[in-house]
């Protein structure tokens, strides 16, 4: 499998063939792949989306490419990843982010969009994932500008890169989470689909300030029902699951596993998961077996957690998602007719290739498509 990747030295640098010359002329950059055909945009759609955020480095070589339909490249541009993904029929899309106040002016918006299309073309990419997580007030100039941005960028990409994909990342619920009051129906209509970030669901806690699951089962499902109740077609929703958890240092840890937290406010809420820090699944798996508690299961939230004592003697509680909690949510995604599933982020597993690590990573990929 890895032999196919080819080495940098074998990549074609010039434009020796007529076909390549045409590609180069239209985009301005030399195709970095061993075969010019691998620089063509991916146009087909598959029944079920598996949408992977990649944050860089080379662990993508160990992904389960039999499932992946789209990679959102949030790391440094990696032509090797582009060529490999295309050889598997998978799209690679840009990350799009801009301060919304800068695109309120229509001319500024048009200029920003043109730069994104140019960059995607130059890098032979297949679309863009718009990741704007900024605070916006309902019916503010930014509110209307954001919907207009998504409409205009989708039109531009679809026109300039046939078959390309434009998607938009939204919070776990449309209820102005983190003061992100967007026109969710307008944005959903305007793009190919929404990637629903069903994680960081404790970013704003108004009740008791204690450690909870990153993506509790019921809360996650409520978010989808709320989107669907706005008349957003389930086929416009891809479920995002976390491949990471939260490590909380407890002010107090009770015998019945209640970990109380200091109040760390976030966007108007008195208590937040910002009291903890994010840990990738691979790291969690290295710690769980040697923890005080071992892996425990919370039936109300349908999520695993464990407890450990740090070197200074403080108790911590770590909440995460594993194949069991993820497959429960994946079953709902399938049954509810969602467009697909994906994760933040693909690089979070232990890809070190020891037999325990291989088993772990395979189980996590498998959990996306429960039988
Ligand atoms: C338009 O963009 C320019 C430079 O990028 C910036 O200085 C200006 O403030 C923007 N205008 C608006 C109305 O956002
Ligand atoms: C939203 O409105 C509130 C109240 O008018 C204001 O204080 C806040 O700065 C606004 N936020 C943004 C991002 O415009
Ligand atoms: C949201 O966007 C849609 C489509 O552009 C529009 O029809 C609708 O009026 C907008 N909703 C609000 C509340 O502005
Ligand atoms: C942790 O324990 C589980 C269950 O006992 C086992 O399957 C797994 O391989 C262990 N993980 C490591 C890294 O030793
Ligand atoms: C989760 O939702 C189900 C179905 O609505 C309900 O029966 C159950 O009590 C809920 N569980 C929790 C912990 O809220």
Keywords:
15 strands; DIAC_cat; alpha/beta; disordered N terminus; 371 residues; Glyco_hydro18_cat; globular
If you had to describe this structure to a student in words, what would you say it looks like?
With 371 residues, this protein is α/β, with parallel strands linked by helices. Helices cover 29% and strands 19% of the residues. It is built from 9 helices and 15 strands. The protein has helices spanning 18-27, 79-87, 106-122, 141-160, 184-190, 217-229, 281-288, 323-335, 355-366, and strands at 49-54, 70-73, 91-96, 127-130, 165-171, 193-197, 237-242, 244-249, 252-253, 259-260, 277-280, 296-298, 303-309, 315-319, 340-344. The strands form 3 sheets. It has an 8-stranded parallel beta barrel, surrounded by 5 helices. Strands 11-8-14-13-12 form a 5-stranded antiparallel beta sheet. The protein has a two-stranded antiparallel ribbon with strand order 9-10. α2 links the parallel β2 (70-73) and β3. α3 (106-122) packs parallel to α4 and α4 (141-160) runs parallel beside α5 (184-190). The longest helix is centred in the middle third of the chain and has 20 residues, at 141-160. Bound molecules: 2-acetamido-2-deoxy-beta-D-glucopyranose (NAG) (5 copies).
